[in-house]
């Protein structure tokens, strides 16, 4: 009987030592955040001078604050209005790039608010919430927002408009995303290499 208990304890001890997930509980959180936030993860780590712990704390805070946010669907009429307005903004960009960027920035802020994200008057809060649900698209919006307030060259602004369009398309066409899974690029975005 004692030998059976010793063998069982030894077997359990060996199983614990050999279990592949042992010691990785800390790492799983970081890997999950890397997958969820994609390029946004790298940007936040860079903002924290390579301090992954601080970056992961910030991203974890975002998930805690905005992860359960329920994205509101757009009515077909609202969707059509936004698409029409975006087309008009792109046309305006040809005539006046700076004004086009300013209007595209305001349009994205309104669209995000209509979808249930924090209002655009608190840009950092809005971008934090958007990054939880649309991490692969927020950098274009962030760059365009900066250009709307600090003019850039026309080619730079054009690239920002193209990048921000990915977020626009995700917000205007996507149905609400389950908070338990991150947004992924749409099939249309993948076909166009975005």
From TrEMBL:
Highest taxon, organism lineage: Bacteria
Stretch list, region Disordered: 172-194
Record's protein name: Secreted protein
Organism: Streptomyces doebereineriae
């Amino acid at each position: 009987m004692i030998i059976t208990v010793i063998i069982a304890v030894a077997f359990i001890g060996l199983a614990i030592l050999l279990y592949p997930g042992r010691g990785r509980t800390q790492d799983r959180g970081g890997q999950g955040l890397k997958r969820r936030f994609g390029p946004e993860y790298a940007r936040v780590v860079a903002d924290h001078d390579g301090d992954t712990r601080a970056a992961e704390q910030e991203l974890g805070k975002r998930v805690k604050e905005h992860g359960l946010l329920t994205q509101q669907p757009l009515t077909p009429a609202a969707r059509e209005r936004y698409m029409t307005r975006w087309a008009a903004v792109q046309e305006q960009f040809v005539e006046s790039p700076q004004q086009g960027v300013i209007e595209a920035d305001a349009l994205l802020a309104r669209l995000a608010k209509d979808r249930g994200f924090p209002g655009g008057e608190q840009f950092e809060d809005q971008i934090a919430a958007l990054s939880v649900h649309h991490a692969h698209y927020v950098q274009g919006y962030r760059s365009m927002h900066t250009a709307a307030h600090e003019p850039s060259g026309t080619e730079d602004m054009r690239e920002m408009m193209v990048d921000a369009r990915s977020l626009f398309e995700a917000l205007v066409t996507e149905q609400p995303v389950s908070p338990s899974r991150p947004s992924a690029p749409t099939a249309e975005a993948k076909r166009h290499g975005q």
